[in-house]
Amino acid sequence: MEGDIHLWSPASHTMDVGEKRRTVTIMLTQRDEVDRDALPLWQREALEMFEAKMRDKNEPFPCVPATQGFYLNHFRYGFVGNPREASAIEELAALMTEFTKNSRQFGKYTSLIIFFETSSDDFRSLTVEQFEQLFWDVLNRLHQFDESAWPSHIPQDPHHPLWEFCFHGEPYFVFCATPAHAKRKSRSFPYCMLAITPRWVLQQFRASPSAAKVQAEIRKRLERYDSIPAHPHLNSYGHDENYEWLQYFLRDDQTSLSKCPFHAHLRGKQ
User: Fold this and answer.
1) Which SS3 state, helix, strand or coil, does residue 19 take?
2) Is the pLDDT of residue 268 over 60?
């Protein structure tokens, strides 16, 4: 990939697609710099709904560092098309590449917030399990656009406690929310959404003196926010019984997949 990307406005990004090269238009932006009147209706709605979720004082969002990242304007936002289409994955890959290159300039609570165009009726009828399948399909296809080698310090087996999804040489925790979630409100959003957080952000948080206190507060908030108990797979990175992939997509009940859908795919591309 190559190109001069302006992080506050739409930009062109040239990338390889198969044996061809094509130009992808992306917008990696701060929410305060968006010309909302120029956005398509679904993009404006998604951004405003996300802001409302983060600002809700009556039912505060459980993840305290996420709300800090929002209010401090450390987050960056990207809008991507229909996740079933190849063009959407190309857009996502371009956004991920540019975010990775610049993320350490954005603040210690930064994340990349991705909104997919999933407002059509066929998406509204999907179940949580069908969104789960779509989520892993997106990660598998995204990985095919990664031009960087898998980091040597991150295991390639998702069933290892230190595994994390990587892109452009950076490990990321990937959080998915969908319109199908109802009981697990913390994973519910009107559009399919990803919150992609660099591992270095999480490491800095865990190293802070207040980390244990904040994590306890997150658990308390989660109990009040969701109408079902916290998922049993919520754990801490590096613990022997922790597997990050199980936390990327939490179902609306206490069940989960028995095997990571990304595992076999990774073997085909080192």
Assistant:
1) coil
2) no
